Amino acid sequence: MILYSQNPSETIRIGKRIGSRLKAGDVVALMGELGVGKTQFIKGLAQGGGIRKSTYVSSPSFTIINEYQGKVPFYHIDLYRLREEKEAEGLGLEEYFLGEGITAVEWADRIPSLLPEEVLRIHLHYTGKNTRSIEIVGKGKRYEELVKKFGVRCPESGVRSKILNKF
Ligand SMILES: Nc1ncnc2c1ncn2[C@@H]1O[C@H](COP(=O)(O)OP(=O)(O)O)[C@@H](O)[C@H]1O
Ligand SMILES: [Mg+2]
Q: Is the CB of 34 under 6 A from ligand 1?
């Protein structure tokens, strides 16, 4: 499924709508170039996942992992500073992936072999200065269903978007 965002708040809104469908144990893998909107999207995910707007700060800048407490814990992992996948091995990422929270991973493509097989993949692309395409692919039954349901509900949900493909 590909959605189109016209501005940052729309990206947050799409994230929020997806976040509201996530539950404990879910993992979302974010990909896309620097400045494309991964952190904006995660801001929405966290809000949708029940983290209060005022609690949520931004991307983890010095730490790699930020934890937020809500009804369900929300973990924001940013691997921007990771030079090679090996460096991630000591971080205990699998504990987050298997844990009781919702986990969002920025620069997920830096840890291809450490990511869980079943995951919600979000790939953002530039389409203009303030426009982005947001490609959403569910890997594994749970996430495939989630994307399918999201796609069906999307037109009446107020997200200005076009659904090109369903995976
Ligand atoms: N449609 C859009 N969606 C998301 N961000 C956008 C959009 N248009 C412009 N922007 C800007 O792009 C930047 C995205 O930053 P950020 O989310 O930190 O990117 P990343 O985490 O991918 O490096 C922000 O400054 C935001 O205001
Ligand atoms: Mg970021």
A: yes
Q: Using CA atoms, how far apart are residues 64 and 66, in angstroms rounded to an integer?
A: 7
What tens digit of pLDDT does each residue of 43-68 get?
999 999 999 887 766 666 666 889 99
Contact 122, 31 (CB under 8 A): yes
Higher pLDDT, 138 or 54: 138
Residue recorded with tokens 């400045």 = 35
- Banded pLDDT at 166 (limits 50, 70, 90): very low
The domains of the chain, with CATH numbers, are: 2-157 (3.40.50.300)
- CA 106–ligand 1 middle distance (angstroms): 13
Ligand 1 atom nearest 106 alpha carbon: 21
